[in-house]
Design a protein that fits this description.
With 248 residues, the chain is of the alpha/beta class. The protein is 47% helix and 16% strand. A six-stranded mixed sheet has the order 1-2-3-4-6-9, with helices on both faces. A three-stranded mixed sheet has the order 5-7-8. Helix 1 packs parallel to helix 2 and helix 4 crosses helix 5. The termini are far apart.
Length: 248
């Protein structure tokens, strides 16, 4: 069964849906399927804008780290870069949790529509880990350096309502999928040749920065994979308790 479903749902609007409910954890296979689907729309004249949504309780509760090694991290981020580099605008519909790499995936979109009770968090430090998925670039670009530092250092959760107030998300809606589809329809009403040209210009610097950051993030994450604090962070997360870090 494919982890990604894609369909044309309205005039010039496509829907990409994560289908690993209820949590929609992503791994290299899922991210490759998603990148392949996005790239396939690059030259599709019927599609001007894409909505990224998910089945189940959560948008994406993070990256499946089971058994991952340094080489696996780098392969994963090669697929992440493909998602950032697509030609068509993307609107993410965020419900439930967008955690860690799930937040990174949402931030790869041009816009985010969140449910009021959505939960967005860059929880890497709470896992004894380093941030990834280009968040070193996308967070400060979106919310500013100080807010980005606070979110990364504390790993605290942000509701959909606060996310909009911070600028982390763009719109708030009780039904973020429907609102994202309406948003995408507004975008898709613009000239189809103009949209990818504008996106390429406006995201050029960001994509270059993300490309460099992904290498740095992969190295930092690889260095922490074997540490006691990372093992404790993962165990505490699974056991839903406060971690007890020991390293200095």
């Amino acid at each position: 069964m494919n982890d990604i479903a894609c369909e044309l749902v309205a005039d010039r609007v496509a829907l990409l849906e994560l289908r690993r409910p209820p949590h929609n954890f992503v791994d290299e296979k899922t991210l490759t399927e998603l990148a392949d689907a996005l790239v396939a729309y690059d030259d599709d004249d019927q599609v001007s804008c894409i909505v990224l949504a998910a089945q189940g309780r959560h948008f994406c509760a993070g990256v499946d780290l089971r058994g991952i090694d340094a080489a696996g991290i780098r392969r994963f981020y090669r697929q992440a870069l493909r998602i950032f580099s697509g030609r068509k605008p993307v609107v993410a519909a965020v419900h439930g949790a967008a955690v860690g790499g799930g937040l990174g995936l949402a931030m790869a979109a041009d816009f985010r529509v969140a449910a009021p009770d959505a939960r967005l968090t860059a929880n890497f430090a709470r896992l004894g880990f380093h941030q990834g998925f280009g968040l070193s670039v996308t967070l400060p670009r979106t919310v500013g350096q100080q807010h980005a530092l606070e979110l990364l250092y504390t790993g605290r959760s942000v509701s959909g309502k606060e996310a909009v107030e911070l600028g982390l998300c763009d719109r708030l809606a009780d039904d973020p999928r429907e609102a994202a589809l309406d948003f995408a329809a507004d975008i898709a009403a613009s000239a189809p040749l103009s949209l990818p040209a504008i996106r390429a210009t406006m995201r050029r610097d960001m994509v270059a920065e993300v490309s460099a950051a992904l290498d740095i993030e992969a190295n930092a994450q690889a260095a922490l994979l074997g540490t006691a604090d990372f093992a404790e962070g993962i165990a505490a997360s699974v056991e839903k308790r406060k971690p007890h870090f020991t390293s200095s």
